[in-house]
Design brief:
3 strands, 3 helices, 88 residues, single chain, alpha+beta
Length: 88
């Protein structure tokens, strides 16, 4: 299973988003720290979930990062997160 698929599956199961886009942006970081051949090191996540209602931006990011701890263990280097509650 690719890291992209694992991230998508994990977020869907854990946070039950109404919208989710997982984008591998590794090629934009070619030659930077953490980059490696084959990609799957730098991702952008856009997620809308009821789980973020009433939470600050920092709390939302902590929730996503905690949910994806296993991705960092599998070689994820950087994660850009846009996390919103429904209606935002």
């Amino acid at each position: 299973m690719t890291l992209t698929h694992w991230i998508t599956k994990t977020l869907q199961e854990s946070l039950q988003p109404t919208e989710l886009t997982v984008t591998d942006e590794s090629e934009k970081h070619h030659g930077h720290a953490g980059w490696r051949e084959g990609g799957e090191t730098h991702f952008h996540i856009y997620i809308v979930s009821e789980a973020f209602s009433g939470k600050s931006r920092i709390e939302r990011h902590r929730l996503v990062n905690g949910t994806l701890k296993g991705a960092f263990d599998r070689g994820l280097h950087a994660l850009a997160i846009q996390a919103k509650a429904p209606g935002e």
